Amino acid sequence: MDRFQYLLLMLACLAVTLPLEFVLGARVYRRPGLLLTALLPVVVLFSAWDLLGIHRGHWSYNPAYVTGLQLPGSMPVEELVFFVVVPICGLLTYGAVGQVLARVRRLRHRSGVPRADSGGAATHERVGDA
After folding, report:
1. Residues 8, 27: Cα–Cα separation, whole Å
2. Which of 7, 34, 37, 103 sits at 20 to 30 Å (Cα–Cα) from 87?
């Protein structure tokens, strides 16, 4: 079981953040082109960095905690999975926070609650408050 801990952790990360797409409307999986555009540079850059570190002997991976499946350059498949999963989870979180903040702004606008500018002063007044 130890060999699969890392992959199970990545699966858990995806499972925990998946509701952000459907419940809070993060809209990450619904825009595959943008998702790929965001993932590609991360995967390429960090994979190259990882491969260089492996090649130079800067780091290695304990075989007890990886499946043994390796990509070219002796990079464990778990590393590639990490480089894909973590940015997706970050994008889901970012998108969900943006959706929640947008909803709060809409609710404030509808209820007429004045919002503060950077100086703390109200930026608008309700009719009749002047």
Report:
1. 24
2. 103
